[in-house]
Amino acid sequence: MLLPKSKNRLQPRGRPYTGHSMMAAVTYLTLAVMLARTEKRRRIRAFLVIMAALLAALVGTSRVYLGVHWPSDVLAGWSLGAAWALGVALLARWLARRGRIEPEAPCEAETAEATPAR
């Protein structure tokens, strides 16, 4: 059988989110966003964010599959983690505009448009 035998392992609702899913989203998405700032190629930027989202999705899905969390708790954890990563991205952009950290690397397409044709 593919599904594990359920022994009613679902925890009573203490927190409205799962810490595993939230921390996976916080860690992987924040890392991807910060690494994507340094990358010039759009495909690599997209790859980093997609892989981070996939890893976070796998963690959350495994929590539901093992029967230890409700799907709504996993969704709440992902939402909190994604909100954190978005906040970090916006903070980094704000700090870069003020010259407090290095600016974001320009994409190849933006660099090609800015270069005059000879």
Key words describing this protein structure:
66% helix, mainly alpha, 118 residues, elongated, single chain
Proportion of helical residues: 55-70%
Please, what is the average pLDDT? 87
What's the tally of helices? Answer: 4
| Helix and strand composition category | mainly alpha
Cα radius of gyration in angstroms: 19 Å
As a percent range, the share of strand residues is under 5%
String of helices and strands = HHHH
Largest sheet: none
DSSP strand tally: 0
Taken from the alpha-carbon principal axes, the silhouette is elongated
- End-to-end separation in angstroms reads 66 Å
Low-confidence stretches: none
Structure, described:
It is a single chain. Helix content is 66%, strand content 0%. It has four helices and no strands. The termini are far apart. 21% of the residues are buried.
How would you summarize this macromolecular structure in one to three sentences?
The protein has helices at 19-38, 42-65, 71-97, 108-114. The chain is an all-alpha fold and 118 residues long. The chain is elongated, with a radius of gyration of 19 Å.
Task: Reconstruct the topology from this structure.
Elements: H1 19-38, H2 42-65, H3 71-97, H4 108-114
Helix pairs in contact: 1-2, 1-3, 2-3
